[in-house]
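Might you be able to review the protein record set out just below?
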Amino acid sequence: MVDPTSDLGTDVDESDAPTCATCGDPIVQSATHRVVTWIEDGSVRHRHFCSDDCRDAYDG
């Protein structure tokens, strides 16, 4: 997976792209890409979502 702080719109192919935590689709050059970040047990955690709908539907 690519560095989540990088520009995900450039030079990322589907095999290296993050996947949506809800539907599992690769997220490549998507204007609706959302990342939710939180701290858990002293570590930074994050989840990628392909859209607001997938973020809202996530049950994790």
